[in-house]
Structures are given as C-alpha cells and as structure tokens.
Specification:
The protein is α+β, with helices and mostly antiparallel strands. It has a five-stranded antiparallel sheet with strand order 5-6-7-8-9. The protein has a four-stranded antiparallel sheet with strand order 1-2-3-4. It is built from six helices and twelve strands.
Length: about 220
C-alpha cells in the first residue's frame, strides 16, 4: 500500500464484517464478569486522517458451560490513541501489523479505480465494474430518461425514471417464473397447477426442474 486510497480500499474491501479494520488481536480466557475477553487496535478513517483506537471487550453474565468453555455477553470499551496522516502511519509502530493483517490486492484495487461517476449540466453517468460484472447508468437530468445496461442482454432497461419499480426478491422470482412459463408455452404444452406444472404431460414441481432435465438431455 503506497497511499491513503490504497489503504482505505484494502480495509473496506475486507469481507469479515466483525473484524473489519481491527488488527493486533489478542484473546484471553474468561472466568469471571469483568474479565477482558480480547483486545485489539482498530483503524478508522476521518476526513483525510487515520485514527487508531485501542479496544477491549469486557465480559459480563459469564456462565461456565464445560471444560474451558463458557458463554458471556461483551461490552466494547474503545479509546482513540492516535491520529495519523498516511505517511505518519507508515512510520508508526502499527504499520507492520496492519500490512500483515490486510495484504494489498492490486488487481481488485485497479478494478475499483475503473469505476466512476461523472456529472455534466445535462447528464449523470455511472460505470461500475467488478470481475465479469458490469453496470452502466446514464440519467438525463432534463427529460428524466434513464439507461441501465449490464453484461446480460436481458438486464438492460431504457425508459423514464418513473417507469422503474422496486421489487422484493419474492416478487422478482414470481415475475421471472411467469416469463419462463410464457416462453415455454411457445414450444410446449404447459398446464399450471397449484403445486407445480405439467409440461408435455410430465409433472414438474417448478420450471427450473424442467430446464435442468432438458439441459442434461442435451449433454
């Protein structure tokens, strides 16, 4: 990591929500209320500076559940112990532990830098890319026209902002199933039952079962 942006991305890109930003972790055995179950340092980004905190997890309601095992609640005590610029942090006692805990992923960072949002007097454009996934959005601020394009042809949308609808996952799956059913009806005999489908005189619990069987026959 050579600058603030690379450090910021590396920390935020960490997939473990509970330990995001923490390093120099030390755990302890718990026996009684008030014992410290673990301690660690934590990174926080404030404007263009980096805060380092010292955190302790203090146990309460400790219950011994077995040999060298217990259950307990924990309260986090956190204290800011230093504020640094990026260069100051590199020269600090914490840098080696940070780099060890959070290795820099250059390829992922370069993908992150390819994303952008641009705004002109008439339009807002957004490009987001991650791996093979891509989304492009263009919003005309004057007439409300919005274009949303993805790497899947069926995922493209061209129309007015007011035509967009937000769907719950269950609603989306229902519409997707209806679309598949209509498509099947073009070349197959389809009957819709309360608990499944009859396609070409064969019962299927759902449309996907028919699609999977058809694909396996082709192979």
């Amino acid at each position: 990591m050579k600058n603030y942006d690379e450090l910021y991305f590396t920390i935020k890109n960490n997939t473990d929500y509970f330990t995001k930003g923490s390093f120099n972790y030390k755990s302890n055995k718990i026996k009684n209320d008030g014992d410290i179950s673990c301690s660690y340092n934590k990174i926080k980004f404030v404007d263009d500076k980096i805060e380092i905190s010292y955190c302790e997890e203090v146990a309460s309601n400790v219950k011994i559940t077995g040999y060298e095992s217990c259950s307990y609640s924990a309260k986090t005590n956190e204290k800011v112990i230093g504020t640094y610029t990026f260069d100051e942090l590199v020269d600090s006692e914490y840098w080696e532990e940070i780099v060890k805990r959070y290795p820099f992923k250059e390829i992922a960072f370069n993908k992150y830098k390819e994303n952008y949002i641009e705004e002109t007097r008439d339009k807002i454009e957004l490009v987001y890319m991650w791996g093979l996934n891509r989304i492009y959005m263009s919003l005309d601020k004057i007439n409300g026209q919005i274009d949303i394009s993805t790497n899947k042809e069926t995922g493209d949308f061209y129309g007015k902002v007011c035509d967009l609808k937000i769907l719950e996952q269950e609603e989306f799956e229902e519409l997707e199933t209806k679309a598949k059913t209509i498509d099947l009806m073009k070349n197959h005999k389809v009957s819709i039952l309360e608990n499944g489908y009859v396609i070409d005189n064969v019962y299927y619990e759902n449309i996907d079962d028919f699609e999977e069987l058809k694909d396996s026959d082709v192979k």
